[in-house]
Known about the structure:
Blueprint (H helix, E strand, L loop, with lengths): L1 H6 L17 H32 L8 H30 L14 E8 L2 E7 L6 E4 L2 E4 L3 E8 L4 E5 L3 E6 L5 E6 L4 E7 L11 E7 L1 H9 L7 H4 L1 H9 L29 E2 L4 E2 L2 H14 L13 H12 L3
Parallel strand pairs: 1-5, 4-10
Antiparallel strand pairs: 1-2, 2-3, 5-8, 6-7, 6-9, 9-10, 11-12
The site of dinuclear copper ion has 9 residues, from loops.
Amino acid sequence: VALSFACLPLVSCSGIQSALDPAGEEAGQVAMLFWAMVIGGLVIWAFMVALSLYASRWKRHPISEEAAGRVILWGGVAFPVTVLTALLAYALWLMPSLRPFADQEQAELRIEVVGSQFWWHVVYHRPEGPPVVSANEVRLPVGKRVEFSLTSADMIHSFWIPALGGKMDLIPGRTNRISLLANREGTYRGQCAEFCGTSHALMAFPAIAMAQSDFDAWLDARIGPSTGVEAGGDGQVLFLGEGCGDCHRVDGTPAQGTSGPDLSHMGSRLTIGAAALDNDAEMLARFIAHSASVKPGSQMPSYPDLSVDDLNAIAAWLKGLQ
Ligand code: CUA
């Protein structure tokens, strides 16, 4: 049992969600601080073990009281105080750069995130052009400082992309800010870091750092309705007929609900249900039919009575919303 518990931290070693495999400026500083603390702690530990071994010999090879006092003063007090003070000074020196938002910085992109049980509303605001609404996925350009403004629709959640930096609470009635700078392209994992209910662990999202040109092209393609909306067909009719549009919005259709995730361009996202499942037609059908068991406690009702053909038609339409 003890060994199992000792191995528990290893589950956090997967690169996409590791603060020790940094892909962002803030995460890099956090990782450096972590290793400095570990090394500082190890130095104190090794020195103390050596001192204890030395002291254990005193019974057989006594030393003078004055010499023993000196060992305790320098080894037991002065040495740890020096190392711990150095670590404290390093941490304090690092802190200003980890402040959520420095005044002089001018973010080129602001991403608004609203947390709800158990999903993320995401809006991209550029200095020019209309905002782009999305959900359960965050994309950002590499090498650009991005400001996240964070709030919550129900209870306290916490926004954390360990590979990039963070974290910051989302609190109802208040807007918190955090700024992140990704310095390596890749797909990382964000996770709600504040217990918020049954499916807290399933309140995650992919965080995708892209080259600026790829990001611009991606964002431009998300302005206005998806071309897949025009294809419409049975899937769209069923989606509207089942009342999905009361909670979900799909740009370019009568579906204009706002209490659930915005599903415009749903097909282009990597995951379903805030990273609960991979995004393909089969998983979409499964999520619609059995959301209560895939994601316990969520507001999304299950539709177990829909026929397989109907589920597939809705899933195919959603997957087509690129
Ligand atoms: Cu939201 Cu935990």
